[in-house]
Every structure is written in structure tokens, then in C-alpha cells.
Design a protein that fits this description.
single chain, Rossmann fold, 49% helix, alpha/beta, 5 domains, 23 strands, globular, 38 helices, six-stranded parallel β-sheet
Length: 1022
């Protein structure tokens, strides 16, 4: 593999080397060898650590590359003959010199590890940005944040809060609302409150704009559009008059078109195809028809020409309200960033790109305090335009001073266009577009070290023979799909197995389910393990579906794309509970929680016989009756005990407890860890997400609920899994990039390609935002090239994704193609009809691996000290605390109880102040202590000891504070004072106290008493 790299004596600098990894494997290994070559060489200038930068796209890839470099240097330093032989082909030194040089370089790296620059592109750009902070107007101590959503939320809230009636912002916002209404899908919910939808659209636009290196163009074409629209209406009316005067019969389409023109609905005139001719040829008299067609030819042509012109203008002004909002929002956002000393990663990269374009590279290097001479970039096909525009001036400067550029990539694996990746950057670099003075030296990795020969042949047949005949011209050639070369390694010759199964799709029966389960069962029978198998699907929803099938069949599985905990049923039920607590009128969320497995398990654990069918009937009854009362009110009336035991305290605490405390109280109240064993990772991750959400300065339950509903590719909600778990891997094709598996099941569905209607056209002046509707744009000459470019990009992305899917298998690949009538892609690309092998080969069965396991212990949360919550106003709560404090000062009453009470009240007031209802409380307590059922617990008795407000430690470590404990010779009695109404849980609390006292005082009989001060009631607890 390293033979494609020239020896250092043959390198002529400046040098641009592009490694086209057509074989799809060995990219990182090649880059590692190049880096080691630079470090060990004495012939290449400027190879000190600080002069070399290796760039990757993930932290894991950076760590892996560092590990590989150090391992290679260690092997060379130890005198490993295989390593020395390999390196001698790269470095013009003998083996002894290489060994000595490796020791020197290794010691240098370990001594100056901070200068060993193998890092992600974002880390490097952040370092450059920080070194130039003052030039951007930021203080030196600012923070770079990865997630810009909290800042965007704050900016949009501040922006919306400053809108005044009649202002530019108000008018722009109203236009945005109109756009939302026009563009929403027919089955979408009506935006009763469009604030969230507006915020989401504006944030989405921001995330796309920061991927470009050029400014967003804001053009005022409204005057030209309005003038053209007015003229179009006049021309249509003139044509209508001509139709009437010639006594011809207008077509129904023209009548509709004329009505829309009279109503001033210009957007409809652009959406509707202009009917030419505008008359019915069958119903109009032939003589009059001929005269009319001749007379109206010029007018019809003028209407079509003007309509095309207006479509071109409308495509450019459609998103104008969003563009103006972006400008206004950006002003607010910049103010917040400077105020809080923060900048988001996207904005940082965009600012750097524009700064680099201003030819201030020497200043950037001066700020860095060093000069980078050699750039090595991995996965180059995933570079975005804004990243490249930042790096390009730095690289160009280095090439002029005995520097070099070495990139490795595979354009066919560029599938992250939605994140800004542009494979065309690599293609232009290979064509010598960027650095004319340093022609690129293109090398190719043609030996595939992953797959068997038959798997490689299958991919070649698809992309070399079938795809070029099926797709638009240039799509297969663009990223190299129709011309790549792959050779199998010698030991993989004649090996590999591929089978294609074509199924007619049925959304009801899902026949692909049985095919996939049968393939997995067959693999297990032939000796494969579950962990050897992977199912790749196009979309996340397909991952959820396949995971459900595997679960039903009893197979262990790891759904990589559903490592998002929100796809777990228990998390969905907990989020439904939070949505209900945030909005009690949300009957759907309340119903989901009531009918969920979690609540059912809680009832079963507590021995409560309650059929969830009762809850379902209650919800149905409420719906059929058309009642406006929230469902929870009906539930509280019908199932008062359940409401009081499980939901009352949560309902009361919401709005008072911080978000994280509320979440932990839900966990404690429902004892979720005990109820759903096996879901610990997801449950812990939910608490982590809540904690991280609060750490951003957000503590609103409503904001968290909204955050939980956002669809994002970010890893906020994802959990990590051990790599060696014996389970089938299920993931999207995007997640599978860079991975390989012994057996791959590729599940494909025929779906039409849907290009994004939002198109970003790059011009020398900046980026123009266009709305391209195919039926309209294909008739407009100025939009046709953009339409072709958009469709080409969508096609290339689709084909690249298919290529990645078909190149992940090492030993076997099963392609399951589900056909639907609305599209023939990608099933039309697959070679159908190849005879499958009569008998699939058996494989050597791997020994079962015992995974080390640590048992998880879940202490009974019901025994934990509970948060007792009563529905009391603040004044009532303070009154109850005051009464408890007074009673805590009264020990044994030997004389007048009223005098003891007044003395206790005076002591309390001397420390904490008086209360306006002092006399009322004194009177109440006098009656209370004078009651014949209460008095004995305050009366003197031989050997009696009274402990007030004392803490006791239970055997499980809990601290329990008891109001009054009376210790007599043969008995111990705990008295718990209560204000307010009686509740069933009070007795459970006293029983818990009694259990603790029995452990502390063995041999004594333990009793419990509930004393309700306001009601003068004393109840024994058994």
C-alpha cells in the first residue's frame, strides 16, 4: 500500500499530492505513512513538529491517527524488520539510520506532545480564530460553542420582543407568516401560534448560510416584480377581450387563468401553465379560430415571455423575507455574542474564510506564532466550501515556501452534502484548478483490502454498466462512479457472496421482514455471530422499523441510528409526562403516559389492579362527549387515589422545582430504574440531557419540551454502546460510512429523488437564495442551468449513498430491494437474475465470548425520603411550619398547657419574628393539647424521655426527621403532627418511622400516632 508513495529523495517541492482512494479502503493508512515519512526524512525541508499539520474530520479519527503514527515509530525504534523494510521504501536512509531517527523523533514527540499537530479541522480553525480574536472584535477569553441553538433562541426571542407595530421588522415578520401558510403541507397542523415555526425556519436558514464562505445577497426586486405582475394581468385581460370579440369558445383552463388574473393572484398565474392556445379548438368555429390564432399569436407569446421573466424574478424574491430576517437577526446575534463572549463554530469558520480571502495570511501566521509548511488532509471529499476557502490561502502561502499539500479522499463516498460537504472541491484540486503553479500529482489506491472479489465485481457492474444507462447524463461520471478501479487483494480472489432479492412492496404486510429474519437465521446456522451481521437502511425511520422486527424475533440488536434515546418507548412515555405537566390540557400526552408500559408496571409493582382499558375508555368517552374539560380532571375524579399517589405531587411541583429536580422527582416517584431493567443507559442519558440543557442557562420546562421535539443530527440524545456486544448492527447508510462487517444486509426502498427547493447559487458577489420549482424553472432559460445543477447534485448524492451501502461487506452481501410503483430507483440499478449459489458456505464458528458484567443495583426508591407536597399556598405553608416549630419547643407539660404554649411562642418569635395570627394559633394549640386524646403524649411519666425534631438514621442510610418521639420503659411512640386535610400517604410515612424505631429500640413495643392539629384528631397507626 505504501508503494504508491514516492521516496523522499524523489519529492520535488512545492508539491500537491492527491490520493484518489478509489478502492475505498486504506486512506488513513496511506496518510499515516506520509506523516511518518515527513517526520523521519532528512531530505524534506521544514519537517519539525510545528511545521506539519495533519487534519481529520472527527476527534476519534485524530486519536486513531496519532496512535498509528506512534505505533509505527515505536516498531521502527525497536528495530522491527518488517516495519523498517516498509519505511526504507519511503525514506532515503538505511535501516540502522531509520531506527536511530525513529528514536529521536519519538522522544521529540513525547517531550513536545502539544506540538504534535494531528487534529480536527474545527480544532485547527478555532486555534486560528482565537489567535486573531481582536481583529474580529472579540475579547481574548471568549468561548467557541459547537451548538448554536441556545444563542439563536435567545437572539430570536430578543429580536421578536423588540418588534414594534409598523416597523420594518413587523412587516417582515408578517411576510414570513404568509410564507409559512403558503408552503405548509396540506396535512400539516395549522400554525395557531407561528412563533416556534418561524424561529425554526430562521434557525434552519442560519445553519445553511454559515456553510458558505460568501455573504448572503439581499436584492430588492419587488418593484420590477410588481410592475411585471401588473402588466401580466393587463395582457391576460386583453387576451380575454380578444377571445370575446372573435366569438371563439375559451378553454376551461384559460377561463381559470383569467379569473386568477382578475383576482390578482400572481403566484397562481406563475404556478399554472399558461394555456396556449387559450380557446377550445373543437368547439370554436374553424374560420373564426384561424383568424383568432393569427391575431393572438403575438399577445400569447408576450404573455409567455413575461410569465417566464416573472418566474425568474419570483425565484429570487421568494425567500426575501427570510433574508431580511436573517440580516436583522444577525445584528441581534452579533450583539449577544459580544456581550456574552461567545461565538458559534459555523460563524467562526465563515468569518475566518472571509478574512483569509482578504490576503492577510502573513498576519494569521504571525498571530499563530508559527508557520505551517506541510498540510495533510484525510477524508478530503467531506471538506465544505467555507472550510476550503479558509485553508486555501494558508496552503497557497506554504506552497510558495517549500511546503506541500497531501490529501486523501474518495469522491464516491461524499454523502454529507446536507452538512456542506462538496466533492467538487477534490475534483477541482485533481484538475489543477486551485494551484496552477503546483500541478497536482494524482495517485490511486486500487487494491481493496476490505471485500471479496465477487462483492467488488457486483459494485463494478452496478456503477459501470447499469447506472450510466439509467441516470441523467454526467451523474455517474461526476464523482468517478463510472470509472473507478478496484482490485481484490490476492487472498480475496474468487471470494465473497452476493445475492439480490427483489420484493414487491406492501406497506401493510411488509414482506421484507421475513426475508431479513430468514437471512439472519441462515447466517447464524452457518456459523456467523450476530455481531458479524449489519442491516443498512436509507432512513432513520427504516432503522426503527427493522429494529422492531428483530426485537419481535428475539434477536439482540444495536440500532445505531436509533441510539437517540427518544426512540426508546420508556423515554417517549417520560417525555409525554413532561409535556402533560407543561401543558395539562394536552390530553394526547396524558393518554400516552396513562396507557404506557411504565405506568402499568408501576401499578403492577404496587399490587394495584387497574385495567388500562379503563383509562382508554375514559379518554374515548371524553372525546365522544365533546367535553372541554381536560382529561386529567376526569381522571382525577374517577381515580382519585391513583392521582393523589402518583401524580398530585408532580403536578404541584411543576413550575416550582428546577427542571433537573423535577426530572429526578419523576424518576423517584415512579421508580423507573427498577421498573424497566435494561433501559438504564437511556434513562441516565435523559438526566444528562436535562442537566446539559440547564447548563446552557435554560430552565423552562416548555423550552425543554420544544427542544425534545427538534429533529437533529447532533448527538445530544445519543448514547454510546460497547463495540463488542454480540448483536446485529442496524444503522443508516450515513452511519455506516467508514465501517465494515462480515455480512451486510442492504435494505433498499424505491423512492423518488426529491431535490431541495431551496437552492443556493454562488456568484462572484455572494450567495443568492433561490426557490426552484421544476415545472416552472425548466421553462425559464436563466433557471434551467441551476435546475440541472440541483438535480445533478441530488443524483450524485443518491448514487454515492448507494455506493457506500454496496461496499461495506467483507464476506457476504444480501441486497433486499423493495419495489414501489411511484419510483423505479434504486431497484433499476441492481443486476437482477443472477443465480444465487445452491448452497451457501459454512464458516468457522467463533467461540462464544463471555462479556464481563457488573450487576446493577436499584435501591427501592419508595423507601427513599419522599418529597411530601400538599397543595397549599405560601401563607398556609408558612403557618404549618410555624405550628411545627412551636410544638417542637414543648417537651413535657407539667402545669398549664396554655402557659407552656405562650412560652414556646415567645421563644419562636424572639428568633424568627411574630405572626399576625399569633393569638389564633395560641388558641388552636391550647385546644389541641387540652384534648383528652392528645394530652397523654405531653403528660409527665416516670422515666419518660421526649425527643422533638430529631433525625434518625435508617439501616439503608436515609435520614428521617421525626416530629416527636416518646420513649417510655416498655414502649416507644412516634407522634407526627399534620396541618390541613388527612391523606393516605401520611400513615405510610409513620409506618416507615416505626420500622426505624423498632430497629433502634429492640424489645420495646413501637406505636405510631397521627395528630391533625387543625381538626383535633388523633389516629393510631398500626
Amino acid at each position: 500500500m505504501s508503494s504508491i508513495l514516492p521516496q523522499d529523495t524523489k519529492i520535488t517541492l512545492p508539491s500537491v499530492v492527491v490520493v484518489d482512494a478509489s478502492a475505498g479502503s486504506g486512506k488513513t493508512r496511506t496518510l499515516t505513512r506520509r506523516l511518518v515519512q515527513f517526520l523521519l526524512s532528512k531530505s524534506i525541508p521544514h519537517t519539525a513538529l510545528e511545521h506539519i499539520l495533519a487534519i481529520t474530520f472527527t476527534n476519534n479519527a485524530a486519536m486513531e491517527m496519532k496512535r498509528r503514527v506512534l505505533d509505527l515509530l515505536k516498531d521502527a525504534a525497536r528495530g522491527n524488520d518488517k516495519t523498517l523494510t516498509e519505511l526504507s521504501g519511503l525514506i532515503s536512509l538505511d535501516k540502522t539510520e531509520i531506527c536511530t531517527r525513529a528514536r529521536e523523533v519519538l522522544e521529540t514527540i513525547l517531550d513536545r506532545y502539544g506540538e504534535f499537530q494531528v487534529q480536527t479541522i474545527d480544532s485547527f480553525l478555532a486555534r486560528v480564530f482565537k489567535s486573531s480574536a481582536l481583529e474580529f472584535g472579540f475579547p481574548p477569553g471568549f468561548d467557541i460553542v459547537i451548538d448554536s441553538r441556545p444563542m439563536l433562541d435567545e437572539a430570536f426571542e430578543e429580536f421578536a420582543g423588540g418588534i414594534k407595530p409598523g416597523s420594518e421588522m413587523a412587516e417582515t415578520l408578517m411576510e414570513l407568516v404568509d410564507l409559512l401558510v403558503l408552503t405548509r403541507k396540506a396535512d400539516a397542523k395549522f400554525h395557531w401560534n407561528p412563533y416556534r415555526a418561524l424561529a425554526r425556519e430562521v434557525k434552519n436558514l442560519y445553519s445553511r448560510i454559515v456553510l458558505t464562505a460568501k455573504p448572503l445577497l439581499e436584492e430588492d426586486l419587488s418593484t420590477a416584480f410588481n410592475a411585471g405582475a401588473k402588466k401580466l394581468r393587463v395582457l391576460v385581460e386583453d387576451l380575454g377581450t380578444m377571445v370575446d370579440s372573435f366569438r371563439v369558445v375559451p378553454s376551461a383552463r384559460f377561463e381559470s387563468y383569467r379569473n386568477e388574473a382578475r383576482a390578482g393572484k400572481i403566484s397562481r398565474l406563475l404556478d399554472l401553465q399558461f394555456p396556449n392556445p387559450p380557446v377550445s379548438k373543437t368547439k370554436s368555429p374553424k374560420i373564426e379560430l384561424g383568424k383568432f390564432l393569427s391575431a393572438s399569436e403575438r399577445l400569447c407569446s408576450e404573455i409567455e415571455s413575461l410569465r417566464a421573466e416573472l418566474i425568474g424574478i419570483h425565484a429570487r424574491i421568494h425567500f426575501e423575507p427570510y433574508i431580511r430576517t436573517h440580516r436583522l437577526l444577525k445584528e441581534t446575534l452579533d450583539r449577544i455574542k459580544r456581550r456574552e463572549g461567545m461565538v458559534d463554530l459555523g460563524d467562526m469558520t465563515q468569518r475566518l474564510a472571509r478574512l483569509a480571502q482578504e490576503n492577510i495570511v502573513p498576519e494569521l501566521y504571525l498571530a499563530l506564532g508559527e508557520r505551517i509548511h506541510h498540510f495533510l488532509i484525510d477524508e478530503f471529499q467531506d471538506t465544505s466550501p467555507v472550510q476550503w476557502e479558509t485553508l486555501k490561502p494558508l496552503i497557497e502561502n506554504s506552497l510558495g515556501e517549500q511546503g506541500s499539500l497531501f490529501v486523501v479522499g474518495d469522491m464516491k463516498q461524499s454523502i454529507y452534502g446536507f452538512r456542506g460537504a462538496d466533492w467538487r472541491i477534490m475534483k477541482r484540486l485533481m484538475e489543477g484548478v486551485y494551484f496552477p503553479s503546483a500541478p497536482p500529482h494524482v495517485l490511486s489506491l486500487e487494491v481493496n483490502y476490505r471485500s471479496g472479489e465477487k462483492i467488488l465485481e457486483y459494485a463494478r457492474k452496478v456503477f459501470h454498466e447499469i447506472v450510466p444507462l439509467q441516470v441523467m447524463s454526467g451523474a455517474a461520471q461526476a464523482s468517478g462512479l463510472s470509472s473507478f478501479r478496484q482490485k481484490a487483494r490476492p487472498e480475496a480472489k474468487g471470494r465473497g457472496l452476493v445475492e439480490t432479492t427483489v420484493i414487491e412492496g406492501d406497506t401493510e404486510t411488509r414482506p421484507e421482514r421475513e426475508v431479513i429474519l430468514q437471512i439472519i437465521a441462515d447466517c447464524l446456522n452457518r456459523g456467523y455471530r450476530l455481531r458479524d451481521c449489519a442491516v443498512l437502511t436509507p432512513e432513520n425511520e427504516d432503522v426503527v422499523k427493522v429494529s422492531g422486527w428483530l426485537n419481535e424475533a428475539g434477536y439482540e440488536f444495536i440500532p445505531f441510528s436509533t441510539l437517540d434515546i427518544r426512540t426508546r418507548k420508556v423515554i417517549g412515555e417520560l417525555l409525554a409526562l413532561l409535556r402533560f405537566l407543561d401543558s395539562p390540557i394536552d390530553d394526547l400526552s396524558f393518554t400516552r403516559f396513562l396507557l404506557g408500559d411504565l405506568f402499568a408496571a408501576r401499578l403492577l409493582k404496587d399490587g394495584i389492579e387497574c385495567n388500562t382499558g379503563d383509562f382508554r375508555s375514559l379518554a374515548l368517552e371524553k372525546r365522544l362527549a365533546g367535553s372541554r374539560r381536560p382529561l386529567y380532571v376526569l381522571f382525577r375524579e374517577r381515580h382519585a387515589g391513583l392521582w393523589e399517589r402518583y401524580l398530585e405531587s408532580l403536578f404541584t411541583l411543576t413550575g416550582y422545582l428546577p427542571l433537573y429536580d423535577l426530572a429526578t422527582e419523576i424518576f423517584r416517584k415512579l421508580n423507573v430504574f427498577e421498573l424497566v431493567p435494561g433501559e438504564e443507559a437511556a434513562l441516565v442519558k435523559l438526566l444528562e440531557v436535562v442537566q446539559q440543557f440547564e447548563s446552557r442557562g435554560q430552565n423552562s420546562l416548555a423550552e425543554f419540551v420544544e427542544f425534545s421535539e427538534e429533529i437533529s443530527e447532533d448527538s445530544d440524545w445519543n448514547i454510546e454502546v460497547p463495540p463488542d456486544v454480540n448483536a446485529v448492527r442496524v444503522m443508516t447508510i450515513h452511519k455506516a460510512k467508514g465501517l465494515d462487517f462480515r455480512v451486510v444486509i442492504v435494505l433498499l426502498y424505491d423512492v423518488p429523488v426529491r431535490p431541495d427547493r431551496v437552492f443556493m447559487e454562488e456568484t462572484p458577489e455572494g450567495v443568492r437564495l433561490l426557490r426552484l420549482v421544476k415545472d416552472q424553472a425548466e421553462k425559464v432559460p436563466s433557471l434551467q442551468p441551476l435546475l440541472v445543477e440541483r438535480e445533478l447534485n441530488a443524483r450524485v448524492d443518491q448514487l454515492n449513498k448507494l455506493y457506500v451501502a454496496l461496499t461495506r461487506a467483507k464476506d457476504e452481501m444480501e441486497v433486499v430491494s423493495v419495489q414501489y410503483p411511484q419510483s423505479k430507483e434504486p431497484s433499476a440499478y441492481l443486476p437482477i437474475g443472477a443465480a444465487p449459489p445452491e448452497e451457501k458456505p459454512k464458516v468457522q464458528k467463533q467461540p462464544a465470548e463471555e462479556e464481563p458484567r457488573v450487576p446493577l443495583l436499584h435501591p427501592d426508591a419508595e423507601k427513599a425520603e419522599s418529597v411530601q407536597v400538599e397543595r397549599l399556598y405560601l401563607e398556609e405553608t408558612q403557618r404549618g411550619e410555624y405550628i411545627h416549630a412551636v410544638l417542637a419547643r414543648i417537651g413535657i407539660v407539667k402545669g398549664d398547657a396554655a402557659a407552656e404554649i405562650r412560652k414556646a411562642v415567645e421563644e419562636e418569635e424572639s428568633e424568627h419574628g411574630s405572626r399576625p395570627d399569633r393569638e389564633e394559633i395560641v388558641s388552636l394549640l391550647s385546644r389541641f393539647l387540652g384534648d383528652k386524646s392528645i394530652a397523654p403524649f405531653f403528660a409527665p411519666r416516670q422515666g419518660r424521655t421526649v425527643l422533638n425534631e430529631r433525625e434518625f438514621t435508617a439501616s439503608d442510610g436515609r435520614l428521617l426527621r421525626m416530629d416527636r418521639v416518646i420513649i417510655d420503659a416498655d414502649t416507644v411512640t412516634v407522634v407526627d403532627f399534620k396541618t390541613g386535610a388527612e391523606q393516605s400517604r401520611h400513615a405510610e410515612q409513620v409506618k416507615d418511622y416505626m420500622t426505624v424505631l423498632a430497629e433502634i429500640h429492640p424489645g420495646r413495643r413501637v406505636g405510631g400516632v397521627l395528630a391533625y392539629v387543625d381538626r383535633g384528631i388523633c389516629r393510631s397507626v398500626e
